[in-house]
């Protein structure tokens, strides 16, 4: 369907900021936006003549270099103009651009922006796709726009992935337990797999078989470095040159699944890590331990030629780190432009439930299905299930939870997507 073009004039010093967020808004509603100096369909201005009115106070605070959310949002996560009108556009700019992470903060033990410092934690809204809600309200409350275009629908889809942190960890993780519980046959099998055949954690064909049964596919993210990285973080317990690893990666591509980069924790650059995997991997990345520091991380991703990053989620809580469910090209504050890659944020991760929230696989299953149920629209829901969670002989509830999620997707006809489709749509 041909999309309608709407012309827009921005009467504010924040031209590039509002241009960027208007483009995200236009994509969401379903029109092309063109910026002009006169004869416009819509005016964005700080005064009451604007079709979309933006806040003078927001601009002054932003220009002062203050990034802390408390300077913009007092009682609720919505900024208001001086005449007490909701300023959806500026609010969405703040959230979508991850501006809160550009302030000074006390990082967690891994140097990350902690969830407990976030605006989503403060206003208890990590599970809310607020930007989509605000975009809809902005559309509803802008009569001129409503006259010209009708709003597009976005049925939610799911993006599945597996970070391969461990290839040889199954024996250490399961051996003792099997011995203690007298499961000698299983223990012998585990030892045989470990030393002779393929170690349990590399039985990725089994993951693909499970997914294939539900007609979905996924991405496997591989660490380019092994051993101890920075901040006492372990990188891979495998080596990319291992012939077993290579043949599995090849098998993944041949079957139509995807290999990507899992950027290691350490001093090697994103470019160096990507160069180590580019022979078999697509230009898709997620950082190990979700390590990020803005804007450095975004700059590195772009410099390495990565086209799609999947890192931006909070390890401590499931949900929307930038309060939006759909991918965007992030905003480059210094150069006042969008980056050349898309960020497909992470929403759901096994370890969040198991280690950060001490929940069982059964509880995780219920919470994830609940999350899917509450977000039937407006999201590319990104789910990370580590490979070792499929082969945990001590607790199979994590494997069951994953299968239950796929079963739910199948029943509700929720499609799974791969990077190619996301890049076509959002880059
Ligand atoms: Zn990892």
Description:
This protein is of the alpha/beta class. The protein folds into two domains: 144 residues, no CATH class; 270 residues, Alpha-Beta Barrel (TIM Barrel). The protein is 37% helix and 13% strand. The protein has 16 helices and 14 strands. It has an eight-stranded parallel β-sheet. β1, α1 and β2 form a beta-alpha-beta unit. α7 packs antiparallel against α8 and α11 runs parallel beside α12. The chain is elongated and about 75 Å long. The two termini are 19 Å apart. 44% of the residues are buried. Bound molecules: zinc ion. The site of zinc ion (ZN) has 5 residues, from loops.
Number of strands: 14
Named once each, the bound ligands are: zinc ion
> How many strands, which pairing sense, and closed or not: the largest β-sheet?
8 strands, parallel
Helix proportion = 25-40%
Number of domains: 2
Order of SSEs: EHEEEHHHHHEHHHEHEHEHEEEEEHHEHH
The backbone outline, from C-alpha atoms, is elongated
Brief overview, please?
The chain has 427 residues and is an alpha/beta fold.
Secondary structure topology:
Layout: E1 5-11, H1 15-29, E2 32-35, E3 42-45, E4 52-53, H2 56-63, H3 88-96, H4 119-122, H5 130-140, H6 143-148, E5 157-164, H7 170-180, H8 184-195, H9 204-213, E6 218-223, H10 243-254, E7 258-263, H11 270-277, E8 284-287, H12 296-304, E9 308-309, E10 331-332, E11 337-338, E12 342-343, E13 348-349, H13 350-356, H14 361-374, E14 380-384, H15 397-412, H16 419-426
Parallel strand pairs: 1-2, 1-3, 3-4, 5-6, 5-14, 6-7, 7-8, 8-9, 9-12, 13-14
Antiparallel strand pairs: 10-11
Helix pairs in contact: 1-3, 3-5, 7-8, 11-12, 14-15
The structure holds zinc ion (ZN).
